[in-house]
Amino acid sequence: RRGEMAKSTQLIDNEVFRAYVTYAAIVLIKMMLMSLVTAYFRITRKAFVNPEDTESFGKGESAKKYLRTDPDVERVRRAHLNDLENIVPFVGIGLLYALSGPELSTALLHFRIFTGARILHTFAYLIPLPQPGRGLSWAVGYSVTFSMAYKVLKTAWLL
Questions:
Q1: Quick one: which of 132, 126, 27 has its CA closest to 78?
Q2: SS (HEC) of 14-80
Q3: Which of 61, 87, 124, 139 could bridge to 133 as Cys pair (CB 3.0-4.6 Å)?
Q4: Cα–Cα distance between 69 and 46 in angstroms, integer?
Q5: CA dihedral over 143, 75, 21, 92, signed as positive or negative
Q6: pTM higher than the cut 0.85
Q7: Are 113 and 144 in contact (CB under 8 A)?
Q8: Before 128, cis peptide (omega within 30)?
């Protein structure tokens, strides 16, 4: 049924939609795990931004030294922010794309490349790997989202 919009009653039987749900769940879980990584780095580096988070280290002046920034924590936070800036659009555009009737093989290629690029981007950010590794992984994922958006517009507006 290439080129036809899927009906809501057919979604559960639609292989493209099921693939989308699978890969969207993977990247969303990955993004959620970044919160835990941030917490881990905050705790192990003892770098907090809220006074109440330092109470286990003492009160008053003794706790104030833990109200600080840490380069490792900030790196994890930037990686997490980059996920928010890229995974959220993928989820929205990917849904529209899945509903636009693409071939399964093409859709899987889009979803797998995006997911792989985001996972590689996270490793490149956290290790850190030398550039252009992080930049290329970002560009690949971003390009995939644009490719899906183009297909959606082409199908919906007959471009």
A1: 126
A2: CHHHHHHHHHHHHHHHHHHHHHHHHHHHHHHHCCECCHHHHHHHCCCHHHHCCECCCHHHHHHHHHH
A3: 124
A4: 9
A5: negative
A6: yes
A7: yes
A8: yes
* Residue 139 scores a pLDDT above 70: yes
Q: Which tokens hold the place of 147?
A: 């490719």
For residue 48, what are the β-bridge partners? 67
Torsion of Cα atoms, 120 then 126 then 127 then 130, to 10° = 70
CB 118 within 8 A of CB 86: yes
pLDDT of amino acid 36: 97
**Token pair 């989308």: residue:** 20
Chain position carrying tokens 């950010």: 125
Tell me if 41 sits within 8 A of 73, measured CB to CB.
yes
Owner of token pair 């989202």: 145
What gap in Å lies between CA 159 and CA 24, rounded to an integer? 27
The answer to which of 39-43, 58-62, 119-123, 144-148 has the lowest mean pLDDT is 58-62
Confidence at residue 5, expressed as pLDDT on a 0 to 100 scale: 56
